[in-house]
Amino acid sequence: MERCKRDICAVATSSLRMVLMDTKTVFVLLLSALLCRVVEADPRTVELHTYLFKDYHKEIRPVVNSTTVINLNFQFFIFNILDMDERSQTLSCSTWLTLIWRDEYMTWDPEEYGGLTNTKVNSNSLWLPDLYFYNNAGELYHNFMKDTIIKVNHDGELLWASPVNFRSFCRLDVRYFPFDHQICEMKFGPWASDGNELVINGSGDMSAFTGNGEWDMLKIEARNNVEIYPDDPLIPYTDVTFTIHFERRSQFYVFNLIMPATLITLMASLAFLLPPTSQGKINLGTTFMLSKTVFLMVVAESMPPTDTVPILGQYLASLMILVSLSLVLNVVVVMIYNKGVAGEPVRPWVKTLVFTIFAPMVFIRIPEPKKLQRNKSALKRLNTNNSNTLSPTQFNNISFTQLKSQTDYEQFVLNGNEYGGSYTAPENGNTHSGNEQAVVLELKRMNDLLTGMKQEKNNSNRREQAKATSQNDRLLAEWLLVTKILDRVFFTTYVLACFMAGVYLVIKINAKQQAF
Which residues, including other chains, have CB under 8 Å from residue 186's CB and lie 6 or more apart? Predict the structure, then answer.
């Protein structure tokens, strides 16, 4: 039973193989028949190619007479700008090239080949002009005319057209970056064929340019040259040089570099509007300076590293100097105000410079100094607050004589001799007889005198303290006014300097436009 199964499987496998082989055979036969039909569909082309390449040598210049000069027409189209690298000073672009020349061996009579007037041939089968790109910046150079298709007309005219990407050296002038105008040259010419064998005539066209996000092409110029090189003197060589004019689109740099930098610089001037007593005066300037530093570090990556400082770099450097200067000036203002806190008087030359010269310039009015007037009535009330208040002079003039009775004390007071007079006891009185009431009155009078002296001393101290406080307040007010005027002067000067930096940038841009 098992043997029968194996036999059945073997028969089935062999049958499947035969079917597959038959399928392959049928497919090959069909493909061959189709190819044969294709080949047989255009026998005139096969016959023409056989005729053209029968005795053709692509290494030999295709002229019947060796003195015949081949004229090469070179049409140059720029399609797009791939890259403009300021660091490596190179231009990468996509181009369309069209070359036309005449091959005297590529001619036939169209009537002999069924009216066939043109055909297409691989460029590797024909003689090609040894055309080289002189400004090549690529690592490896290859002949861009190889492995392409050439259209051959019956009169011997050959048309070669193909898109080619080039990377060339270009001396970029970044003085006016990002408002710069660049001029790049691309030179093409034969390397071995001299002017007696090959003459090249070039023309440029910008109709195929599709635009670039950063660059606009203004124009393209073609210049045909005849040059003699030192390695082969007296032998002329022809070439064509295409001069391409580009202009950078500066909107990106205006909105992303110039405007933020200008706004940061203008905002730094707000520190001058803060009073010197504010702690944020220095902190604000320091914050803007640090933000400006970080911003310049970011901008430096987009700046071309050349020995020429572009106008954008000059403008940003000037703004950085202004921000740093604003921080220094704010520190100076705070130091000046601290002189008033320390109680130092304002020097006369400072008053003359600030109050007389600077204040009118920034439209600040100086208030007139108030005269210190003594309030006599207030002082009188202070001195007579107590009827027994004595001055030191009055106290020294008092003649302390023993009073005998209350009547004698009252008489002493009524005679106005309480503060500075002298009292003489009655002649018939006993000066040695004591009276307790008189002694008590005398002690009371002495206590009142001492109390008055103490009050006078306290009043004098208060007057001196008030005078010193008033003097310190006056000095502090003068220094505060000085700092206010200086802040206004620095603010005005700072804003004018920012404006002048912007005017300088505009003048440079206009000078660039007039130069080109």
Answer: 76, 133, 135, 166, 168, 241, 242, 244
Residue 95 belongs to what H/E stretch? Answer: strand 90-107
Is 44 strand, coil or helix?
helix
**DSSP per position, 8-38:** HHHHHHHHHHHHHHHHHHHHHHHHHHHHHHH
* 399, 423 contact by CB (below 8 A): yes
Which residues sit opposite 95 in a β-bridge?
78, 164
Q: How many CB atoms lie within 10 A of CB 378?
A: 9
Radius of gyration of the chain (CA): 54
Two tokens, residue 115: 């009216």
| Amino acid identity for residue 270 in this structure | L
Query: How far is CA 42 from each of CA 46, 50, 116, 122, rounded to the nearest angstrom?
Result: 7, 13, 11, 18
**362, β-bridge pairs:** none
Per residue, the 3-state secondary structure of 430-488, as one string, reads CCCCCCHHHHHHHHHHHHHHHHHHHHHHHHHHHHHHHHHHHHHHHHHHHHHHHHHHHHH
- To the question of pTM greater than 0.90 for the whole model, the response is no
The predicted-structure confidence for 57-76, as pLDDT tens digits, reads as follows: 998 999 999 889 999 999 99
Q: Which two tokens stand for residue 296?
A: 């310049």
Distance CA 239, CA 194 (A): 10
**Residue 399, token pair as written in the block:** 């003649």
311, 511 contact by CB (below 8 A)? no
Mean confidence (pLDDT) of the chain: 77
- Which CB contacts under 8 angstroms, 24+ apart, belong to 454-460? 455/385, 455/386, 455/389, 456/383, 456/389, 456/390, 456/391, 459/382, 459/383
